[in-house]
Amino acid sequence: MKNLLSTLTFLVVVASSWAQLPPPPKPEEPVPEEEIKPTVLTDEEKAEGWKLLFDGKNNFGLRGLTFNDFINRGWKINHGTLFCSKSFKEMGLVTGGHLITAEQYVDFEFSFEWKVAVAGKSGIMYYAAGTRDKPVGCVYSIIDDVHHPDGLKGGPIRRTGSLYNILPPAEDKKLNGPDLWNEGKIVVQGNRVEHWLNGGKVLEYTLGSPEFLRAVKASGVKVAPTFGAKFKTAVVILDEGEEVEFRNLKIHSLTPPAAAPGAPAPAR
Fold it and tell me: 102-241 — its CATH code?
């Protein structure tokens, strides 16, 4: 009887202690993601003829070049960006494939924002020819200058803002590192081509000029017969096997420059 009373007393004490403990915290409710507002053009941009290729939710100005179902292959749309993610096994492999603009251009200005992961790489190709799997043309290089072996071994002509493998960008360019956003721009008007990076012009060259042809020859790169020629073409976003992310993709056609008296018209 004495042992029973002791046991009962112990249980009462324990129950009383549990009653005095604060209630367990309620599980935190998931915080709803902030609604992504689509990118819109200003009235001034609309008047200038700009067109959005990707507004943060819709990629109505782009299609798959390598694969028609590029969204299911590796490219994704989330958090207002268009990105190509890579698992460890997919590094260095083309998964989502290259993307291409739905329309073609001759003289144009293409504006884009991008960021790469550590050792990431991509590029914007214009005056493109070749095949769906292996397009060839002029490439605005996008790369992690510090960590990617292609830029480290290849030097300035393979680093961000360069005409890939041909012409280097300005040494004083302003480049934000991996996982940080950068602003790029390609301007083609007549035979003059400009590469811009974060508000500064980092490269300018003239298609078909002696200086351009010498640089192509000095590079030792085997180029397609159409390389450096002026023709109507789409713009290609490259999947180079590394993680890359884009937003604010927009483009507009430019008026060809007036030819000087007696000078031949710009190539078409």
Answer: 2.60.120.560
What's the CA angle centered on 18, arms 16 and 22, to 5 degrees?
Answer: 120
Whether 226 and 125 have beta carbons less than 8 Å apart is answered as: no
Helix (H, G, I), strand (E, B) or coil at 136: strand
Assign 3-class secondary structure to 150-210.
HHHHHCHHHCCCCECCCECCCCCCCCCCCCCCEEEEEEEECCEEEEEECCEEEEEEECCCH
Instruction: State which residues of the chain have pLDDT below 70.
Output: 1-36, 259-268
First to last CA, the chain: 108
14: three-class secondary structure by DSSP: helix
The radius of gyration of the chain's CA atoms, rounded to the nearest angstrom, is 27
Beta bridge partners of 116: 244
The answer to whether 105 touches 51, Cβ cutoff 8 Å, is no
Contact predicate 250/53, CB 8 Å: yes
d(CA 165, CA 159): 9
Q: How confident is the model over 109-130, as pLDDT tens digits?
A: 999 999 999 999 999 999 998 8
Sequence ranges of the domains in the chain: 102-241
